[in-house]
Amino acid sequence: MDGNGRWAQANGLSRLEGHAEGARAVREAVRTCRKEGVQFLTLYAFSVANWGRPRTEVRALMNLLLDFAEREKVELRDQDVKLQVIGDADELPLATRQAVQSAISYTSQCQGMTLSLALSYGGRADIVSAARAIALRVQSGQLLPEEVTEQTFQSALSTHGLPPVDLLIRTGGERRVSDFLLYESAYAELYFLPIMWPDFNSKALRDAFAFFSGRERRFGLTSEQVQAAGTVVPLKAGHGFDPHDASNSLLASAESASAE
Ligand code: IPE
Ligand code: MG
């Protein structure tokens, strides 16, 4: 969600007002995703690197987050949206953390969509902490090194339980991933658009979905294999392709379909 500051500047407003407008755009994006049947939406709200911004801006973002959690929890539950956090929520100021925690509890039984807020999140930091957690399990004898698979690794990331990223959208004109879901975006379709986040509306989101629908996702296979297979089932989270495993289901289904 990039471009709040530039949007504000272009409209003669303060950066903080830009962030407030950004929060409105979040509300609209959540509603649209829910309407369109998206099951998992993850929003990059605050990165580890964002702690380095001016103190007043960090404080304002934390207050905005507190407000958002308090004000939106009822609507989230009405829409059957379950809230969760990825990243290091312990780093948040107490009042913000409590408001977010309360919204998480309030929506914990919802099943229509999972909204994950990336807060104090960094993709590399998350990978490193997964590696550390696995190393500890190996050190204590709970796990053998050869038992460390993509499955084990995935379940040690803060995105455990979420599927791999299908579509990654970045507003604001930059063509960067900026430490977002590095492991999980291995086969994501990347969609960069020049509009600033506060202007990102349901029309823009539906355009992104249309872009996504037009992609041929090959997951390393050839176009012919994919077309012969009809629908290609993406590799499950953490279930990587093993070149020595002939039972790899993706390849097998593509090949058996083309043989028919
Ligand atoms: C919002 O946009 C992203 C926020 C975390 C926290 P920016 O604040 O990065 O806006 P620009 O890039 O300065 O326009
Ligand atoms: Mg920015």
List the helices and strands and how they pair.
Layout: H1 4-10, H2 15-35, E1 40-47, H3 55-78, E2 81-87, H4 94-106, E3 113-121, H5 123-139, H6 150-156, E4 167-170, E5 189-192, H7 202-213, H8 223-229, H9 249-259
Parallel strand pairs: 1-3, 2-3, 4-5
Helix pairs in contact: 1-2, 2-3, 3-4, 5-6, 8-9
3-methylbut-3-enyl trihydrogen diphosphate binds at residues 1-6, 22, 46, 50, 61, 172, 197.
- Globally, the shape reads globular
* Termini separation: 46 Å
Order of helices and strands: HHEHEHEHHEEHHH
Strand order in the largest sheet: 1-3-2
Give an overview in words:
Helix content is 46%, strand content 12%. It contains 9 helices and 5 strands. It has helices spanning 4-10, 15-35, 55-78, 94-106, 123-139, 150-156, 202-213, 223-229, 249-259, and strands at residues 40-47, 81-87, 113-121, 167-170, 189-192. It has a 3-stranded parallel beta sheet, with helices on both faces. The protein has a two-stranded parallel ribbon with strand order 4-5. Among the domains are: 125-157, no CATH class; 217-260. Mean pLDDT is 92; it is low at 252-260. The chain binds 3-methylbut-3-enyl trihydrogen diphosphate and magnesium ion. Magnesium ion (MG) binds at residues 2, 172. Magnesium ion binds at residues 2, 172.
Features:
alpha/beta; three-stranded parallel β-sheet; about 10% strand; globular; binds 3-methylbut-3-enyl trihydrogen diphosphate; binds magnesium ion
